[in-house]
Amino acid sequence: VIWWCKARRIPLLAGCLAAYFALSLLARGTTVSLPSFLSPGGAAQMALAMFFAVVPAIALVACLESGVEAAEITGVRRIKSLDLSLSVATVVATALLSSVVAWLSGDAGAAVGGRNTAFLVGLALLVRAFAGRPAVVAPVFWPLLVAFFGFSSPDRPYHWTVLPEVLSAWYAAVGAALAFAVGLVAQFRTSRKTT
Amino acid sequence: MHAVVIAFALVQAHTLPTIDSLRTLIIPIALCAAHAVIGFTLGLRVWRLIAAPILAMVVWVLTAMASAVPSPWPRQLSGVYPRRLSFGEIATVYSLLPHLLLTGGIALSLLLLWLHRPLWVRVVATTTAVVCVAAAYLMVRDSGYSPPVLAGKAPVTCAGDSPEVCMPVATSSGIQSIRRQAKSVFADLDSAGVPVRARVVVDTLHGRENRSASSDTIMRVPLTEAAATHSVRLAVLLSAVRFPCERPKFDEEQDARMWAAETAGEGKAFQEFLKQQLVMSNGQGISVVRHISRTVEKVRAMPRRAQATWYARTVRAACGGDA
Questions:
Q1: Distance CA B60, CA B228 (A)
Q2: DSSP conformation class of B209
Q3: Which residues neighbour B101 within 8 Å (Cβ) at sequence distance 6 or greater?
Q4: How many other CB atoms are found less than 10 A from the CB of residue B284?
Q5: Summary mean pLDDT of chain B
Q6: By the CB < 8 Å criterion, does B115 face chain A?
Q7: pTM
Q8: Strand runs (DSSP E) across A8-125, as ranges?
């Protein structure tokens, strides 16, 4: 397990999670106006925190992609289940950190970070199953897509966007859970050990 | 890539770029190079798999939000030229420079660091970055939302006299016919006893800053737009009916305009124009138009001299003078 930790650069993932926590706390409640094609004013209001959820997802994929490939394929350690639990742990940790941010800042909306990270991690894992390393850009791609095409008016996102939805939006929660589940399945079926 | 996109646009518009118009193109081309340098340098130093996507996102968010923050200066640095240039306008070099200084300065200093690095190179590189960024900030600190431009730079051609008609060369293909139409409007109003004093008719397409600023001798008319919709006479007429104040009263204003339009044989066109305007503002258009045309019909039945007096009085009344 220690070798796995070193090969996967777990400290770096932890650092990224810490960065996520610090950023979320700093930028709590900040919204920015960004260009949006389908919104009548050509702009949409987005929480800056929406973009921070990308950090844990990128870090996770980057960590999963680093490692000692040859040794892992031939070895006998149970890498696959470790990797799967790493994905789950990242999402759980982010959800906890988001809740802490929400509690500290008194802004319940900040807790959407966990849901958003679950969605982005799911998306990234799914893309990774097909594309491999380049999947790190998938979590970045989604918020940009949402910014450009996800708003019907400056403060009304479409349902499919997930990220900018409020905490109480059940469809966003379902979407995130679904994406995460599909991502985990994709990771399970295509992790290196089986190929 | 930029060149291909722009070439397509030019082909679609059947036109060639002028040298001056290519100025704004410098920004995207130079900034692409600068961002590439910054990205490569970062990639040499830190773990690419994480740095690349995060840098991409950070740069995008910063650039995108720069044009919407309340303070005006960030948008003068973001690399997105914050103004729609209209006809005859050229971006000033001074307004383009900050965009290049900020990103370009950082890229340049990183480029210097690619060399073997004795101390003095590091010092020069750091100084370059600091000076460029500071200079960019100082240049835009006090600027407004919209950068200054050089306006009215499209070449102009003029034709005839009394009235002399001036239009941008690019849209002046029908200038002789436009001049004849303007002249006929002037003649109609002259013979009705309300001579137009303006001797020069200038297209508003040339220099949008002065759109409303007609004076006693120069009349500004949207000639190019009017020529496109075959309503040159109406456009000239509307500009010819002038009031001694900024915001004339609605009823008197329309009475005077309608009379002038009927006099010059453009009554139908004016009624259509008025209806369109009223639909946009309040929707009771048709009855208002009917009321105005009834008033004007009565006036038109009067002798010529009396009509001119009525017109002068109405124009004065529109600005609060006694009726």
A1: 41
A2: G
A3: B132, B133, B135, B136, B139
A4: 10
A5: 82
A6: no
A7: 0.74
A8: 31-35, 43-47
